[in-house]
């Protein structure tokens, strides 16, 4: 795991830190070839320069975001924003279902929209996989 991600995790409150550590560990184990870095202030995992999954601290929770998550056809993920992203929010590690998380990360590898080139395409997303 990236040292900046560890620093991000350790800067959270006790329960939020635990949530972040579980998410980082699970994501990293299921995306071993992904690049992990702090992007726009929070940890994100990339495949070939394309953002796949990340999490961030919101006012009342930790939000796990899958950039192509609306295409997963999965219960438990809520649409986020005006593109293809979907999220789930956690306030406790007890809420993290590792089976669901593993399945979602697997789908994130297989189902990708090209966020890397969204600016070049003037806001138009194209499906990669």
Structure commentary:
By secondary structure, the protein is an alpha+beta fold. The chain has a single domain, classed as Aspartate Aminotransferase, domain 1 (Alpha-Beta Complex). The chain is built from three helices and six strands. The protein has helices at residues 3-10, 14-30, 98-110; strands spanning 35-39, 42-47, 50-57, 62-66, 78-79, 86-90. The chain has a six-stranded antiparallel β-sheet with strand order 1-2-3-4-6-5, covered by helices on one side. A hairpin with a 6-residue loop joins strand 5 (78-79) and strand 6 (86-90). Helix 1 runs antiparallel to helix 2 and helix 2 packs across helix 3 (98-110). It is globular, with a radius of gyration of 14 Å. The mean pLDDT is 91.
Please tag this protein with its features.
24% strand; 129 residues; 6-stranded antiparallel β-sheet; YdhG-like; DUF1801 domain-containing protein; Aspartate Aminotransferase, domain 1
**What is the terminal separation in angstroms?**
26 Å
Examine the coordinates and then state which fold CATH places here, giving the name of the CATH topology. Answer: Aspartate Aminotransferase, domain 1
Mean pLDDT: 91
Q: Could you state the oligomeric state of the chains shown?
A: single chain
Structural class: alpha+beta
Estimate nothing, just give the exact number of structural domains: 1
Q: Architecture in CATH?
A: Alpha-Beta Complex
β-sheet strand percentage: 15-25%
Shape: globular
* CATH level 1 class label: Alpha Beta
